Each structure stands twice: as structure tokens, then as C-alpha cells.
Amino acid sequence: MTARLEALPLSGGILLVGAGKMGGAMLRGWLEHGLPAEKVVVHDPSPPEEIAELIGHWGVATGLEACKGRDFQAVVLAVKPQAMADVIPPIQYFRGVDTVVISVAAGWTIANFTERFGSDAAIVRVMPNTPAAIGRGMMVACPNGNVTDKHRALCDALIAANGETAWIDDESLMDAVTAVSGSGPAYVFLLADTLAEAGKAAGLPASLANRLARQTVAGAGELLYRETVDPATLRKNVTSPGGTTAAALSVLMADDGLALLMKRAVAAAKKRGEELQD
Ligand SMILES: NC(=O)c1ccc[n+]([C@@H]2O[C@H](COP(=O)([O-])OP(=O)(O)OC[C@H]3O[C@@H](n4cnc5c(N)ncnc54)[C@H](OP(=O)(O)O)[C@@H]3O)[C@@H](O)[C@H]2O)c1
After folding, report:
1. Closest Cα to residue 72, out of 151, 7, 149, 159?
2. CATH for 182-277?
3. Average pLDDT for residues 159-163, to the nearest whole number?
């Protein structure tokens, strides 16, 4: 059960910069989990229509003018990486002594931010993923040395509105994190697609194959979410020796099967992440 955000000790509030897919999902999560709307200012000249409606519905203040005189506890940066350099100078002004800067931008390192915000800035770099939009994200957070327990607690509370948080201290793990949880939802969507294709090849009508694959992946994901046992145990629980599932798994679990492919896929994503930072 996610904590409500009404009680957060926020005198000045939160500045959200960029309210597109990720920033908008975060904003929705905060408001729906009780963050008082007057505690947020959104800076995004052209948010998507549904986020503009959300902002209007809750009466959230917008624009840099609305930031004047406020003492933000957190500045959350959710613009595309290529827009980040332009975004930072105007908002520098609104960072106070106790502000934590939280970035969800891929590829922007803590060093990139300290260069711009100064070595005294408290920075948390977060790698979210798309299920954050439905409150089921996996957000991995990496703090710099200026981040205090109070900052961490605030980040935890804000992130919890969109999913789970894991903290890492070693930023060099971020490319591997991105390769697993950041890009991971796409691998699962591909699994649903390829399962449907295989169903068609096995003789099912296309619409039925699509439906079976989609519901199977979604249902199995939900089961995994609700159960506390590990995925290998869940798999074993549905595999009778000599049965149909075992026959399929003998193919998927062969030496050149899914484990090898997944290792190669994750390694490729990690390598690409490293290249993008060079
Ligand atoms: N979406 C994901 O699943 C996901 C996953 C992991 C990480 N992220 C990270 O999240 C960040 C945002 O991604 P996104 O998918 O949410 O992008 P997005 O949908 O394009 O949202 C970014 C928003 O920022 C606005 N913006 C652009 N320049 C701005 C400026 N100077 N000041 C204020 N707002 C500005 C954009 O407006 P315009 O549309 O008018 O440019 C847009 O509304 C990225 O850095 C990405 O790496 C996203």
C-alpha cells in the first residue's frame, strides 16, 4: 500500500520540469496519492492534452513566474535528454539550500548535473520505466554525496506514487539497470508478440492467438506481482514432468535458448547505454 502524500513536510513544494509521458505520469501519481495541488508547480510550455487537463482539473500552478518566491524541496527534471541543457539555466534560480534535484533523464550522469548545478547540489538520478504510468514502475535511484536521509525520504515518497524504488550507490550500474528494468517492458511486449505469432503458426486464427498471448502475458505478470515466490518456483509449479509445458521449456531452456538470448540482449542494451555517454 503506497503512503499518502498529504503529510509530506513540504513548505515550498515540488517543481516539475517537463510534464510529458514520464513527468505527466509522475504528476498524476502524486496528485492521486494526496499531494496537495498547491504544493506543485509545473514548468512545461506545451504538455500533452491529457496532462494539460489534469493540471487544469487540479488547479496546479504553471510556468516559471509561479516559481518566484518559493522554496522548493525538490526539482524534478523530466524533459528529454537533449532538452536538458536548455532547461537547467532558468531553473537554477529556484534551487534553494535544501533542494534535491531529481532527474529521470536517460544518459544524464550525476557529474553532468553537478557541473551545471554546482558541487554542493543534492542530485538523485533515477531510471524509471513505462509501467510507472499505471503505478507499477520500477525506479532505480542513485544519489550523490550531498543527498541526505531527508532527501531520500522525500524521493521515496514521490517515487512510491508510481511504483517501487531501489537505491544503488554505484552509478556505473545504471547502464545495466537501464538494460534490465528501463528497457525491459519492451522485451515483455515482444514476448507477447512472438507468442501470438507462434500461436498463428500452430494453426490458431490471428485474433484468437493475439488475445491468448496478450492475456497470458498480462495474467502471468499479475501473478508474479501478487506472489512472493520467485519466478523459477512459479514456473516449476505449472510444469508437470513429461507434459506439454515441459516440452516447450526444453526448447526455451536449451543451451542456445532464451537465457542465452536474454543475456545477449541485455549486454547489447548495456553496451549501447555506455556508447551513448561517450
Ligand atoms: N517515457 C518513458 O517511459 C521513460 C522511461 C525512462 C526514462 N524516461 C526519461 O524521461 C524523460 C522524459 O521522457 P518522456 O518520454 O516523458 O518525454 P516527453 O513525453 O517528450 O516529455 C517531455 C516534456 O518536456 C517538455 N519540454 C521540452 N522542452 C522543455 C523545456 N525547455 N522546459 C520545460 N519543458 C520542456 C516537452 O514539451 P514538447 O513536447 O513541446 O517538447 C514534453 O511535454 C526523458 O529524459 C527520458 O529519458 C522516460
Report:
1. 151
2. 1.10.3730.10
3. 92
Q: Is the CB of 25 under 6 A from ligand 1?
A: no
Residues of the chain with CATH 3.40.50.720: 14-174
User: How does pLDDT run across 237-269, given as a tens digit for each residue?
Assistant: 999 999 999 999 999 999 999 999 999 999 999
Angle (CA) 98-103-107 rounded to 5° is 140
Considering only the top CATH level, what class is 14-174? alpha beta
Question: How far apart are the C-alpha atoms of 33 and 264, rounded to whole Å?
Answer: 39
Ligand 1 centroid from CA 6, angstroms: 26
The boundaries of every CATH 1.10.3730.10 domain in the chain are 182-277
Q: How far is the CA of 20 from the centre of ligand 1 (A)?
A: 5
45-97 pLDDT, tens digit each: 999 999 999 999 999 999 999 998 888 999 999 999 999 999 999 888 888 88
